[in-house]
Amino acid sequence: MHVMIQLRPAVAREAHAVLALGGHPPEPGEVLARLLALVAKHGLALSPVHPGATDPSLVPHFLVDAPDPASAERLLKALRQVDGVDGAYLGAQSEPP
Q1: How does pLDDT run across 31-82, given as a tens digit for each residue?
Q2: Among the four given CATH numbers 3.10.450, 3.30.70, 3.90.1150, 2.40.160, the one describing domain 2-90
Q3: Is the pLDDT at 24 greater than 70, yes or no?
């Protein structure tokens, strides 16, 4: 299940830079560090929907692939508490349930 995440612009730009470096920046910002730790705590990984994008309308969009609906719902609830997250929701399924 795709968990779609829209980050605030500054956090999104930082996330693109961090993920392009393999997730090992010198010192991630506090908000991004919290977000990455939260996703990792669930055993998942954050990915940009549009890697390498520079268009401001595309940069904020990220996703996490959750293994099942219950995991996705737990992650959504936690993501909605992170200051740098403007929105988090389930993405459309590409296959019938």
Answers
A1: 999 999 999 999 999 999 999 888 999 999 999 999 999 999 999 999 999 9
A2: 3.30.70
A3: no
- Which tokens in the block code for residue 60? 């904020």
Domain locations in the chain? 2-90
What sign does the dihedral 23-35-76-87 (CA atoms) show? negative
Q: Which residue has the tokens 């090992």?
A: 24
For 31-45, how does the pLDDT look when each residue is reduced to its tens digit (9 = 90+)? 999 999 999 999 999
Nearest to 75 by CA among 65, 83, 84, 60: 65
